[in-house]
């Protein structure tokens, strides 16, 4: 998620898998088939997921002993783990700003923000409780975290140290008064110098692991401005009014200019060889600090993204 929806992480923290039975799976019990194909889950866990309706066959709830048939689609929804505590991990953090109430961190690409299925350690939350032991506020297992960035999105994220800090941030996110700016390199030549994408986003009905622009989705608004043009790509500065899951990536793919390096919503691009991840960086963040003063923070492009731009410039770029 480019910028997480405040306080309600339920659907966005769940993992979704689509399994497609093959000929050899004909007649297999549903619980055994899912357990065999998702080995991280015990058969008991799988049976619990089935009984709670989190495993569906062609959209229908079935019993654990249901016999599957090739051609069916088995969808598995895995909720976030119920953790008793977040264990501290002494991971160095790039602190951009800190006061008694909030911290602004420049998150590296590859770091998950908070524990989720498959990522119980090494997250930003683990690092925060190690460096700031008293940070757990509001009775949450996501200490002070009120918004998120995708694992492979780098850049600025603000964290509350106190209840006062969290309440101030929550109010601003709910009022959509926070300024969130990103830099992204997208495929193709974007004709517009400036434009707005206003299109609802929800789960992709054909693939629950993805998001998509769908009529029944939730409102989502993205603004962008072309910063630099290359022969086969365009550098954009993007700001978002809303914070839907994968919003920037989904919206830009929707208009035919997916983020370069995006393995989920993108397409092959010559610059992929230069990038181990999606070219998306949260470069700016502006909000009112709990003491009432305005806070404006910036994070330069990390080395991998800066290197990619320099390589493209060396190949010859053109400007408007």
Give me some keywords for this one.
four-stranded antiparallel sheet, 3 domains, globular, alpha+beta, Structural Genomics Hypothetical 15.5 Kd Protein In mrcA-pckA Intergenic Region, Chain A, 320 residues, ten-stranded mixed sheet, 19% helix, Pseudouridine synthase
Break the fold down into its secondary structure elements and pairings.
Blueprint: H1 10-13, E1 15-19, H2 30-37, H3 43-51, E2 55-57, E3 60-61, E4 74-78, E5 95-98, E6 102-107, H4 124-131, E7 154-160, H5 163-174, E8 179-187, E9 194-198, E10 201-204, E11 207-213, E12 221-230, E13 233-240, H6 247-254, E14 280-288, E15 294-298, H7 303-315, E16 317-318
Parallel strand pairs: 7-14
Antiparallel strand pairs: 1-4, 2-3, 2-4, 5-6, 6-7, 8-13, 8-14, 9-12, 10-11, 12-13, 12-16, 14-15
Helix pairs in contact: 2-3
- Proportion of helical residues: 10-25%
Overall structural domain count: 3
The general outline is globular
- Model regions low in confidence, pLDDT < 50 over at least 5 residues: 3-12
What's the architecture of the largest domain, going by CATH?
Answer: 2-Layer Sandwich
Per DSSP, what share of the residues sits in E-state strands of 2 or more residues? 25-35%
Main sheet makeup: 10 strands, mixed
């Amino acid at each position: 998620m480019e910028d997480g929806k405040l306080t309600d992480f339920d659907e966005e923290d769940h993992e979704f898998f689509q399994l497609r039975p093959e000929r050899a799976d004909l007649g297999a019990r549903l619980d055994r088939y899912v357990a065999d194909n998702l080995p991280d889950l015990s058969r008991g866990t799988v049976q619990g997921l089935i009984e709670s309706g989190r495993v569906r066959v062609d959209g229908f709830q079935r019993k654990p002993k249901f016999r599957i048939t090739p051609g069916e689609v088995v969808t598995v929804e895995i909720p976030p783990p119920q953790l008793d505590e977040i264990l501290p991990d002494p991971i160095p953090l790039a602190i951009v700003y800190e006061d008694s109430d909030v911290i602004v961190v420049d998150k590296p690409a590859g770091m998950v923000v908070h524990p989720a299925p498959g990522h119980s350690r090494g997250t930003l939350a683990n690092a925060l409780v190690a460096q700031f032991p008293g940070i757990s506020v509001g009775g949450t297992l996501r200490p002070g975290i009120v918004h998120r960035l995708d694992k492979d999105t780098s850049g600025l994220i603000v964290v509350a140290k106190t209840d006062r800090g969290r309440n101030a941030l929550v109010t601003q996110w709910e009022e959509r008064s926070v300024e969130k700016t990103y830099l992204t390199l997208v495929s193709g030549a974007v004709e517009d110098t400036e434009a707005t994408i206003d299109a609802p986003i929800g789960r992709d009905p054909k693939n629950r692991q993805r998001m998509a622009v769908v009529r029944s989705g939730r409102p989502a608004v993205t603004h962008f401005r072309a910063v630099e043009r290359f022969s086969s790509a365009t550098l954009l500065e993007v700001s978002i009014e809303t914070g839907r899951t994968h919003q920037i990536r989904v919206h830009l793919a929707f208009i035919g200019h997916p983020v370069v390096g995006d393995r989920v919503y993108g397409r092959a691009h010559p610059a992929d060889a230069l990038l181990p991840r999606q070219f998306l960086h949260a470069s700016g963040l502006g909000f009112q600090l709990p003491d009432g003063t305005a806070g404006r923070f910036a994070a330069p492009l990390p080395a991998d993204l800066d290197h990619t731009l320099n390589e493209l410039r060396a190949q010859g770029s053109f400007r408007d």
